[in-house]
Amino acid sequence: MTAQPTPLFPDSATSRPPIDPARLAAANINPKTGLATDYLNHFNEAIMLLDLLPEMPECIVELIGWEPLSYEEHFNGSNLKDRELTIAAYEVAEPIARVRLDELADTMNALLVATCEAFQKRSSLDAATALAADTAARLKPMVARAGAIINGCDIETSEDMTTGEQQATVDALLEVR
Q1: 44-70: per-residue pLDDT in tens?
Q2: Cβ neighbours of residue 121 under 8 Å, at least 6 residues apart?
Q3: Distance (Å, rounded) from C-alpha 80 to C-alpha 112?
């Protein structure tokens, strides 16, 4: 007698078959939240380029070409073996974690878009380097927080930024340039 896989969330009403937690874990998807940290690579790559800018000014071309991606867009465009499973798990992911991750990703995307737009108007390499350092410093704790959300840490108690606070973060960044 084989054990039946348990649903990702036992009390969720979905027409999909249950997703086996062991299968999720094997695909680097957190079985508790249904989310994958691989999405954060999109932001970590931008942070790496921001950090490299002082030593490699030519990175600015790649940064200017950076484009925001939602969770689903990231995985739809990836070559990951389990991308369909990753997207399916996201669709039934723990609701609070999914909303908090999406809101945080929206803020990180907006910050990077504003930075890339500012790079195009930069007055000097020094100004671009300062902006890159400020953006990277703001993004790193956000990526860490997103990782905590994906891994199910403090989902119930974490405080999210309001839309106004998100806009203030982007506005503050633009004042630095």
Answers
A1: 999 999 999 999 999 999 999 999 999
A2: 177
A3: 24
